[in-house]
Amino acid sequence: MTEYLHFCVGTTGYALPLGRVRTTTRMVAVRENDTVIIYGEEIPVAGIGEETRQVKATDSLIITTLREDEIALIADRIEGIRPEEEASPGNLPGTRITGDGVIIIDDLSLIPLAYGALAPDDEETATLLRRRAPGLAETKVTDEAVAYPEILRFQLGYVEYAVGMQYVREVILTGEITPVPGVPAFITGISAVRGEIISFIDLRKFFGVPEYGLTDFNRVIILSDGKMTFGLLVDRIRGTSRLRRPLPDATTRTAIPRTHLIGVAGDVVIIDGKALLTDPGMVISDPERDI
Q: Is 16 or 245 the better-scoring residue by pLDDT?
């Protein structure tokens, strides 16, 4: 089954085959020659459409392939990773469209692209984008990098977390959640996902982490190891990347215990998905069955 990276440009949803996506990252400053340097490689920047867009600090870059070359696509936000859906031929060549209006891009070379980007109006945003650029430019990706595990980055309040992609079954929109009486406070409720009843977890309550910033909980990351399955309620999906060791010096402190922590890379808190899925605290017994 083919998986797709879903993202938005303006109010339009798009999807790219995950196998063609090298990585995703936060927006950085675009150089004068309309390129960015990602892991030591100079990559042209482009936006979907015919007009050059002005970048924002909240934008993301999707590093993907165009013919034989790489390109950095600007997206307003990353929506997550989902398996292939039924789709009809789209209005644009090389595309299909799903029932909910998402444009699946099968051939990026047939899509109108505007190369380059307009710098932000305010100096604060421009400074932030310039500050991000050196960290992404340092390490060149080689064939050896394929051996490094892929992680999915997500946001809760003001804090960015990540978990190994090998435990991510899918990412979905938050639907109707049914509260369950008598369960621990970290279980927000249950919901039916593709015919399966799944518990939805508030990670911050599970770990007793201070709750900084408002939460929307508009995405759910379904984690599974084949035995245990549950959903993590999150605010935003930040994209995927490769976990490299040794981890760089951390700039974020976290209250998550070492037993459930792989490390902290810069501002990203990397959670041990295996430890989370096998934690005895996630097994909620039924008092009636225990009699």
A: 16
Average pLDDT over residues 81-99: 86
d(CA 171, CA 163): 13
* Amino acid code (one letter) for 57: A
Would the pTM of this model clear 0.90, i.e. be above it?
Answer: no
As beta bridge partners, residue 88 has 97
pLDDT score at 123: 92
CATH code assigned at 156: 2.40.50.180
DSSP collapsed to 3 states, 176-216: CCECCCCCCCCEEEEEEECCEEEEEECHHHHHCCCCCCCCC
Please give the structure tokens belonging to residue 38: 């990602």
Place of tokens 């109108």: 112
Domain range enclosing 135: 3-141
22 and 113 share one domain: yes
Strands (E), 87-143: 87-89, 95-98, 103-105, 113-115
Peptide bond into 246 cis (omega under 30): yes
> How far is Cα 167 from Cα 151, in angstroms, rounded to an integer?
9
User: DSSP labels for 38-75?
Assistant: ETTEEEEEEEESSS--B--TT-EEEEEEETTEEEEEEE
- Asked if residue 213 has pLDDT above 70, the reply is no
Residues 111 and 167 in one domain: no
Burial class (CB within 10 angstroms; exposed 0-12, middle 13-18, buried 19+) of 288: exposed
Q: Are residues 187 and 227 in the same domain?
A: yes
Give the count of beta carbons closer than 10 Å to the beta carbon of residue 235: 18
Residue 143, pLDDT above cutoff 70: no
Four-CA torsion 164, 153, 11, 5, nearest 10 degrees: -30
Angstrom distance (rounded) from CA 160 to CA 171:
16
